[in-house]
Amino acid sequence: MQRDSTFVELEKQAVFNDSLVVQNTQLAEAVERGSALNLSTFSVDAVRERSSGKMVSTQRAGRTDKLKVCFTIADNVIAQAGDRQFLIEVLDPQGNVLGGGSTKTNDEGASVAYSKGTDFYYENQDLDVCDFINKPAGDFQSGNYMVNVYDDSLKLLGTSKFTLK
What we know:
Blueprint: H1 2-34, E1 39-49, E2 55-57, E3 66-73, E4 82-91, E5 102-105, E6 111-114, E7 116-122, E8 127-134, E9 143-150, E10 156-164
Antiparallel strand pairs: 1-2, 1-3, 3-8, 4-7, 4-9, 5-6, 9-10
């Protein structure tokens, strides 16, 4: 009788432990989702570099020397501070990726061809990041461009469209 009661208590404890494991897994997933970085603002500007080094905004494809991609990463107290990398993908009017043409693949097998990787140090506070995409071998073509920003796990954080005349 004592052995049976001990066995029943052991079964209860095993069920309780299993529920704790499931609860722990759910909490870990919630923390992972909550610690993802997000963009609060995102802008793209075509710029022309003057001989003095000053950058001037333009809308003409022939005058554009670089694309200035700026975004603000929202503060997140759950995220770990440290070195991070975001990927910037710039698609020209024909849908081709401008720039280096590097490719990154994540753990699930998804891959993204990107123009440039931007490295920064995140300290759990709002952070403004700007980077430049140099012009391709020729000039920029007139038409509609699309810029995407991905985090290091290839999650799409923001998209912006603009037109060059």
